[in-house]
Amino acid sequence: MTYNIRTLQLGSSWFPEHSGGLERYYFDLIQHLPTQNIQSRGLVIGTNAVEKNTNNQVRAFSQKNLPLLQRLYNARISTNKLINEFNPDLVCVHFALYGFPASDLLSRRALVVHFHGPWAQETAVENGKNRSAIKYYIEKTVYQKANKLIVLSEAFKEILIKDYRIPADRISVVSGAIDTEKFNITIGKLEAREKLGWPTDRPTLFVVRRLSRRMGLENLLTALKEVRKKFPDILLMLAGKGNIANELAKNADEMGLKNNIRFLGFVPDDNLSLAYRAADFTVVPSTSLEGFGLITAESMATGTPVLVTPVGGLPEIISPFNPEWITRDSGSGAIADSINSILSGTIKTPSPESCQDYANRYDWKVVTPKISAIYREAIS
């Protein structure tokens, strides 16, 4: 294949070694850019296996267990080395922390920032503290050098404008993306449950999230306790790992939800599609800073609808499809009311076919050309 653009993609962690929305997006983007005649080389945090498994396309500039200053030093050295070796037309930064050490080098190239979320603000929410001035400075330094910034939703565009003082004309909204074929499940709900060993005779909800504060999982447990009054057999399948896992398990026990929730831990990709399909619907109960939520598109691609809170970019995904599947607010009462209405049939459940048709708008085949156009504009 003949490439007419060369990009250096500076990421965070490498997806197969660390799961997360940013990491999955970066991993998939690297795979799909060649369809737009864009050649890419990447730098990430990871093991020596990264370079081997990608035929030297992506290198690990540092391992995750190294001290921060060492990682930052390695990021600068590796970025400078790869710029000299590869001579990219464009540098793309996916995480400001690792772009910051080489910010002077980035100023000499066309620069696009993929804004996956306000790092300083996210950390503050997780830790219950004020926003870190240092993290905010690092972010703002990198963002202001960018020719173009790509955000996942209008909600995140507003954050860049208001909080980081980035001119609106430098920001482009391009949704997150998935490989819909990967999630195209042809079997029915009951068969999927049988394959996973899930009960086949209970109303079942699925949630896959990092188990952390802003995901709204505490509110979901409280809502589940309320829903159980009308639907005593309600079952929540909760997948994911995180720093509040033990706290959530303790809360569930104290609420008497032991028979209404199963903590699945990490669910591998091979079973994730089945898990979506096995559920009556998926729930995304976020309370803040949800830029897109890839799980919404993933679930819809399997044919399973998604109930979301009106937070960040979530309403932008669901509203054109069915606004009734957005709770009135992110509180436990609103979540419980919506779940009850869906299970009782007051809110109609869309067909699997309509969910899958709608999810196609978020396929990488649709999204990658939009990213390519922004890259070309930044270079020009």
From TrEMBL:
PANTHER family: GLYCOSYLTRANSFERASE WBBK-RELATED. Residues 20-182 form the Glycosyltransferase subfamily 4-like N-terminal domain. InterPro entries: Glyco_trans_1, Glyco_trans_4-like_N. Gene3D superfamilies: Glycogen Phosphorylase B (3.40.50.2000). SUPFAM superfamilies: UDP-Glycosyltransferase/glycogen phosphorylase. Residues 191-359 form the Glycosyl transferase family domain. Transmembrane segments: none annotated. It comes from Acidithiobacillus sulfurivorans. This is Glycosyltransferase family 4 protein. Pfam families: Glyco_transf_4, Glycos_transf_1.
